[in-house]
Amino acid sequence: MGFVDIHTHLMFGVDDGSRDIKMTLKMLEVAILDGTTDLFLTPHYRLYLSSNTPQITRPLFNDIKERAAHLPINLYLGNEMRVDSKSLSAIKEKNFNTLNDSDYLLIDYPFSLFVGDPVEKILKVASIHPHMIVAHPERHSYTRSLSVIEDIKNKGILIQVNAGSILGSHGSESEYFAHELLENKLVDFVASDGHNLTSRPPLLSDAYNIVLNQYGQEVADDLFKNNAKKLLID
């Protein structure tokens, strides 16, 4: 098994990721050449993108799978659910995509206009859907704290860090905290959060090599491959 990328925006025309099917297929080719064998399409679900329900995304996902059938990669559907009123309503109504229809839901925080305790906010979601993975907390100033992450982890919630953060692509603060999380063994997954072919491509190998060299083979394989196996079981 190669890399398992649990967080990407390769579904075209639905958020700030891929623009069209041509771009999606090219991004898949880039991911394959980089060593990815399993990839999740996780379009945003938040206040202004609340149409990315299963009714919209599943037919589009099936179309992408059919057009990409010639490529050596396994594709899975999910959502990246923002902690806001629209997403909470969708979760209550079960009108969203978990990761490959598993028990796990990918959650993210807003980058601005956040009010309140991040742990309290995430626990509101956990009260509805208890199995969660928090996307890239190293990118948010209010979750860029070991005590906050430890509190989240103590609730049984998992942590996904962006490959770009490990490489420094999201700024020095995100890079520093991503490595602090790695050093403290608080990371469960590393994903690309790929949005395009230029500034945010779906690449994992460079980050994998850094983790391999700094933290060892077992850690690297767990974060980029093994820990995600539970999400691939149909």
The CATH homology group name:
Metal-dependent hydrolases
CATH architecture: Alpha-Beta Barrel
Helicity level: 40-55%
Distance between the termini: 17 Å
Q: β content, as a range?
A: 5-15%
Number of strands: 9
Number of H- or I-type helical stretches: 10
Return the string of H and E elements.
EHEEHEEHEHEHEHHEHHH
- The first-level CATH class is given as Alpha Beta
Count of discrete structural domains: 1
CATH third-tier fold name: TIM Barrel
Which SSEs are present, and which pair or pack?
Blueprint: E1 3-5, H1 21-34, E2 36-41, E3 44-45, H2 54-67, E4 74-77, E5 80-82, H3 85-92, E6 105-108, H4 118-126, E7 132-135, H5 146-154, E8 158-162, H6 163-167, H7 172-183, E9 189-191, H8 205-215, H9 217-224, H10 229-232
Summarize this, please?
By secondary structure, this protein is α/β, with parallel strands linked by helices. The chain has a single domain (3-232), classed as TIM Barrel (Alpha-Beta Barrel), CATH 3.20.20.140. The chain has helices at residues 21-34, 54-67, 85-92, 118-126, 146-154, 163-167, 172-183, 205-215, 217-224, 229-232; strands spanning 3-5, 36-41, 44-45, 74-77, 80-82, 105-108, 132-135, 158-162, 189-191.
Describe the structure.
- Helix content is 40%, strand content 15%.
- The chain is an alpha/beta fold and 234 residues long.
- The protein has a single domain, classed as Metal-dependent hydrolases (TIM Barrel, Alpha-Beta Barrel).
- The chain has a 6-stranded parallel β-sheet. The protein has a 3-stranded parallel β-sheet with strand order 1-2-4, covered by helices on one side.
- Helix 8 (205-215) runs antiparallel to helix 9 (217-224).
- The mean pLDDT is 95.
